[in-house]
Amino acid sequence: GFKTFVARRYKHFSSRSKPLYAFSVSAMAGRQTPFKPVVFERGGLLRLKRGDFDCILNLHTGRGSLKAAPRIQAFDSFLRTFYSWLLPHRKGLLIHGAGIARGGRAFLFPGVSGAGKSTLSKLAASVPSGNPAARRPGSITVLTDELIPVRREGKGFYVYGSPFWGEMKPGGENRRFPLAGVFRIIKSPENSLRPLEKGVLLRLLLRCAMNFSKERRAAAAVLSLAAELASEKNAGELRFSKSGPAFLDLL
Predict the structure, then answer these.
(1) Max alpha carbon distance in the chain (Å)?
(2) How far apart are the C-alpha atoms of 99 and 185, rounded to whole Å?
(3) Where do the H-state alpha helices sit in 10-165?
(4) Measured on CA atoms in the order 197, 202, 205, 207, is the torsion positive or negative?
(5) Of 31, 50, 58, 88, which residue is least crowded by CB atoms under 10 Å?
């Protein structure tokens, strides 16, 4: 049934830890219209609503109810919407971007649709264990090609494995890596790294940060965190060729 399908889809992200929030789930009829969900807080309640899901969460008790169309797309969209609300409240962002980890560190590549997130990720995933391009056998992990969680923890940012994928087959690993760099990506005949103005990167990050909330506090948190990411020392523009994964040597 639907419960089994959900458990299979997100099996790499299940946990036995005590949950912060718990939801009772029931089925509802509905379609994916309007596409953009409504998110608002009022009187200690959080409401997340779209044509194919409707969630009410008591922020004081951590208990909520979710009605969703019995399709994995509806549940996945609810999760994306929920984490886009949750992360800014916990010093984090859910960013449209690809994430690639190597040697115990992760690189973030924010990008809008068509920027090359999936292309870049597929190239990185094509490096076999032991290939010289990997530098370290088996050290390359594609975290996602679509939506990636990033959180500030202590003095730095950490990038997390994601259950949200685009063109690549959903999978992911429930791991976190310290952030090693932030790069705008551009498809190009040749591989190169170029400097990028902080303001340009900030605008891209704000465009790529998933946020449906109209709350001022959420908007302020998104702006502040995006500005910190844009100020990372190792930031710039990665131009990459679709001919192979040689761009990894530049990171």
Answers:
(1) 57
(2) 12
(3) 72-86, 117-125
(4) negative
(5) 31
Let me know whether 62 and 161 are in one domain: no
Last residue of a domain, one of 36, 63, 90: 90
What gap in Å lies between CA 21 and CA 62, rounded to an integer? 5
Is there a single domain that holds both residue 136 and residue 43?
no
Task: Report the C-alpha gap between 150 and 172 in whole angstroms.
Answer: 15
pLDDT tens per residue, range 163-203:
999 988 767 789 999 999 999 999 999 999 999 999 999 99
Neighbours of 185 (CB within 10 A): 20
Domain that holds residue 64: 2-90
d(CA 215, CA 10): 29
Same domain membership, residue 128 and residue 113:
yes
* pTM, full prediction: 0.92
Tens digit of each residue's pLDDT (9 = 90 or more) over 8-48: 889 999 888 999 999 999 999 888 777 789 999 999 999 99
Q: How far apart are CA 24 and CA 44, in angstroms?
A: 18
The pair of three-digit structure tokens given for residue 40, joined into one six-digit string: 């608002």
